[in-house]
């Protein structure tokens, strides 16, 4: 039921953007929200994800629209070159955070350092932690629902419902991160 609900809203939003852009690339990441198994499946996580199915459906829906391209991967990381800068996208649920002092920064930086040994991005974009965090090396996307029971459980900072808007400059890379406030009122 939730997939049907969100597919309609994503499709409507994308259709409204088409007249305003030459191209739209939708980079997707599946994570723990739509997982159909109790534990993570490392190499076959996409096969057990309602989110991945949603992205596949949307990709097919927009298949005849040349301005909209979906990047629906089967792996944990998705990459996109933006203005000459490689950006790594992922959900964030592979980062283990136990609510320690300093927030998610230390475990996230530790995990990114390991991943960077294989391929280093200009920066990472992820979600999962239910708060907007802007760091030179990464952006943790804000959360559409704002503070909820999960955010309280993990010790996330109280924030209004947001998504993140990033500006990437060809010469300097990411130069700006702004919250987009998503208020239902």
Molecular structure report:
The longest helix has 16 residues, at 2-17. The chain is built from four helices and nine strands, in the order αβαβββαβββαββ. The radius of gyration is 16 Å and the shape is globular. The strands form three sheets. Strands 3-4-5-7-6 form a five-stranded mixed beta sheet, with no helix packed on it. The chain has a two-stranded parallel sheet with strand order 1-2. The two termini are 24 Å apart. A hairpin with a 2-residue loop joins β6 (133-135) and β7. The protein has helices at residues 2-17, 50-61, 105-116, 149-154, and strands spanning 24-27, 68-71, 78-82, 85-89, 123-126, 133-135, 138-140, 162-169, 173-181. α1 packs parallel to α2 (50-61).
The description of the largest β-sheet is: 5 strands, mixed
Shape: globular
Number of strand segments? 9
| Succession of helices and strands | HEHEEEHEEEHEE
Q: Bin the strand percentage.
A: 15-25%
Task: Calculate the terminal CA-CA distance, rounded to whole Å.
Answer: 24 Å
Mean pLDDT: 93
